[in-house]
Design brief:
This protein is an alpha/beta fold and 314 residues long. The protein has a domain of 196 residues: Divalent-metal-dependent TIM barrel enzymes (TIM Barrel, Alpha-Beta Barrel), CATH 3.20.20.150. Helices cover 26% and strands 11% of the residues. The protein is built from 9 helices and 8 strands. The strands form 2 sheets. A 6-stranded parallel β-sheet has the order 1-2-3-4-5-6. Strands 7-8 form a two-stranded parallel ribbon. Helix 5 packs across helix 6. The longest helix has 16 residues. It is globular, with a radius of gyration of 20 Å.
């Protein structure tokens, strides 16, 4: 990725690419790979996903994410995710908006899970107004397995708001059966961000056993069919901000993997925080987006908590 190319058309690394990576470490990975920015998951897309501690009263992980991004010259382009449901009330997502503003993001990704288009449009318009006060712009992303499952629907809802837009994910657009002609009808100023995904052109074959996932949705059944072709990146562990003595904020815990089976240490950029053996598991095996769990790979360094001591879901 040349410097000229990224300057002319900035490209950021989406958090879903490496969702098991703590946001501060995602910054370093993106910088090392040559990206100009990142997207950060500050809220989950469903109850089966464990959140990173990025909302609330200035959480340390959020502050460290911003510090690293500023130090490395990376932009935090977007934060995600806000779900609009029939139960959504104005102000429900204030913590996400505050987190986005604290990170310096300019876009917030939105999912439409309300089948009533008029009500969904009302919720989106209210969100757009609240987001504007935080310097954020909401973009509605159509997905084949959500209530807002067509690009045309997302465009209508966005057009009814003051400043909202449409987020086009090439994978979801394809599985929503959006044609190039349909995408070409979207006003350019309504699509400030496009997501790219190197998924297969055809939907992976699924077992014929019920219940199948809705069309377009990825999950445990979909990934089993393709997992042999995927090499998961080695997980790294953020130990939290150093204490006054320079040691990690959390004490080490016992490892479940013997030294004989432990893999080599991670790239050198991880060594700046703590010796590998002193790292604790801030990045526990986590759920994928939606209601399914992502296949996990063994930890490469540090320790891995048992299920009884893993970071609780909130």
């Amino acid at each position: 990725m040349s410097a000229d190319a990224t300057a002319a058309r900035p490209i950021a690394l989406g958090h879903l690419t490496l969702l098991d990576l703590a946001p501060p470490d995602l910054v370093e990975v993106a910088a090392h790979a040559g990206y100009t920015g990142i997207g950060v998951r500050v809220a989950t897309a469903g109850t089966a996903e464990a959140p990173w501690p990025m909302t609330g009263a200035n959480p340390p992980m959020r502050a460290e994410t911003r510090r690293r991004a500023d130090a490395l010259g990376l932009e935090i382009v977007d934060v995600e995710v806000v779900r609009l449901t029939p139960e959504t009330r104005r102000g429900d997502h204030a913590a996400v908006l505050e987190a986005g503003a604290a990170l310096g993001a300019r876009v917030i990704n939105v999912i439409g899970d309300d089948p009533d288009e008029a009500r969904c449009a009302e919720s989106f318009a209210a969100l757009a107004e609240d987001a504007r006060a935080h310097g954020l712009r909401p973009l509605l992303e159509p997905m084949a397995y959500r209530a807002v499952d067509r690009v045309e629907t997302a465009a209508r809802i966005a057009a009814a708001s003051a400043g909202g837009g449409v987020l086009v994910d090439c994978l979801h657009a394809y599985r929503c059966e959006a044609s190039a002609r349909t995408l070409a009808t979207l006003p350019a100023d309504r699509v400030p961000l496009v997501q790219l995904c190197d998924a297969p052109a055809s939907t992976p074959p699924l077992p014929a056993e019920p219940p199948l996932l809705p069309r377009g949705q990825h999950g445990s059944r979909a990934t089993v069919a393709t997992s042999s072709a995927i090499t998961s990146p080695s997980r790294t562990r953020w130990p939290g901000p150093p204490s006054a003595s320079g040691a990690p904020a959390r004490p080490p815990t016992s490892s479940r993997r013997s030294s004989a089976t432990r893999r080599p240490p991670p790239p050198s950029w991880t060594a700046r925080w703590a010796p590998a053996e002193a790292w604790t598991c801030w990045s526990t095996p986590r759920a994928s987006c939606g209601n399914t769990r992502r296949p996990s790979s063994p930890a490469t360094t540090g320790t891995r908590r048992s299920p009884s001591t893993s970071r609780p879901r909130t």
